[in-house]
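Table S2 (continued). Query chain:
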Amino acid sequence: MTVIDGDASVAIDDAPTVPTSASLAASYPNPFARTTTLGFEIAEAGIARLVVYDVLGREVAVLMDGPVAVGRHEAVFDAAGLPSGTYVVRLRAGSFVATQRVTVVR
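Corresponding output:
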């Protein structure tokens, strides 16, 4: 698509971008008191599992466990009822695995 503004024209690409690799973005906000948003990209459609663990390795929340399409996705981690501390978020999508730490503060 081309947008014309006076004497200048600017080309804008309307096609959605397709990720070339999977990734787990930094959560925001972090640290957080109640909820944080986790963004991730999937390069191949398939099963994705996004899980939160405490520092002892116990599963405390499953944010996603099922089929996902190629593209960018978000999940919200609601830590209501969990104590303050550090938690580990793990994304597994096909052969891709990534982890990150999030901190709950009260």
